[in-house]
Amino acid sequence: MKTPSKIAIVTGGGSGIGLAIAEKFVQAGIHTIIVGRDQGKLDAAKEKLGELCEPFPCDLTDLTAIPKLVNNIIQKHGQIDVLVNNAGINMKKEFIEVTDEDFQRIIMTNVTAVFALSREVVKCMLEKGVKGSIINISSMASQYGIPKVIAYTASKSAIEGMTRAMATELSPKGIRVNCIAPGFIATDMSAKALNSDPERKAKAMGRTPMGEMGRPSDIGDAAVFLASDGAKYITGVILPVDGGNSIGF
Ligand code: NDP
Known about the structure:
Order of helices and strands: EHEHEHEHEHEHHHE
Bound molecules: NADPH dihydro-nicotinamide-adenine-dinucleotide phosphate
Strand content: 5-15%
CATH class: Alpha Beta
CATH topology: Rossmann fold
Oligomer: single chain
């Protein structure tokens, strides 16, 4: 087997967009560690993607597990070149029905865990002098207002601000930080939000100039580019991959 060019972590790499990113990374010869809670999903992804894909099960909301996770990866592989903070959860509920616990649950997964994992990975990148790439995943919910997703919107707006803050602080040290803002991409998550609400789906497609949902692989292609040396002068960018949804009329 050829020595892999880079070592990457893709959180939520067992399904949907994360699985598509992992698949594109593997095709690019990157050794790809996929992280998620569901061992069965991770094993199925490994089965599909082969030798360059390696599952590391972890619940990222268990913040104490994160340094251990990163330490185990470093013990085994020596360094981490790319981190994709893709794992995320959504919740569609009327504003006044969202409880404090609901709100905190979304923020914990979509923001706090992203911060904690990024911090641990950045420590290792700096220690090893790696020219790293971190890719965060936001959403159309932080480009314009969408009803009934208050916590999710707060979390994805935080991700975009964190991307800029991290990019300014870490780029001088050789670590690029960028963010992909997916439009409406066909996965289980979007099916849950849209399939029971045809009006919402029609509205989303009505303002998408390309007129259809994106595929998870569309996000995978953008992630491969941002992780590559072809993007070596790109940092702090929020890249919509959305068929034009964010600028649609
Ligand atoms: P999925 O629900 O298919 O995937 C989410 C992934 O996150 C799962 O693999 C899940 O794995 C993982 N995950 C969730 N919680 C945790 C946790 N606590 N610890 C570890 N892993 C976790 O959703 P998508 O693929 O659609 O979404 C991926 C990302 O893209 C999310 O950040 C989402 O917000 C974003 N996005 C999606 C859009 C879309 O249209 N689909 C649009 C815009 C943004 P497991 O269950 O094994 O823990």
